[in-house]
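It is worth pausing here to work through a concrete case rather than discussing structure prediction in the abstract. The textbook approach is simple: state the sequence, then state the predicted structure, then interpret. We follow exactly that order.
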Amino acid sequence: MKQFEHVLHTIDRSLRVLLAIMLTLLVVDVTWQVLTRFVLPQPSSFTEEVARFLLIWISLLGGAYAYREHSHLGFDLIVRNLSVAKAKIVFQLCCLLVAIFAITVLIIGGLNLVLLTWTLGQHSAVLNVPMAAVYLVLPLSGLLFLLYSIYFFFNAPNHSIEQEDII
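Step two, the predicted structure:
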């Protein structure tokens, strides 16, 4: 389990850096888009597509990172009134549901979408980037959600659960 925690810690660090870089690129891209549209006579043609693709990647990877940090919104009114043992069971059930969603929708569905767009040879209109590369974030974020769910599921009984950690 120590090795799994070390791997997750490495993934967390890498994910933080990647998200910071992508967010910085998004800010620079949108700033350039505004400058070229309103200051320069010729608007930039690629900035809107870059911003859209960065936003997709930031949203999905950021969602996985927020799940890792227990930063998602949660409805904890019911859980507050449960005993610690029952709260742990609810927490583990939520981890199981997240894992099922990650496997079925994000990983399997995402891989099917990546395969379909790769087979059809779909490319973006302006940048001519394969859409399979853009959609690759779906199974990648699904894998992150799955790894974090597995970690939370098996570590829930080993620590006391704070109200913010549940759901």
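Step three, interpretation. The chain has a mean pLDDT of 91. DSSP finds six helices and no strands in the chain.
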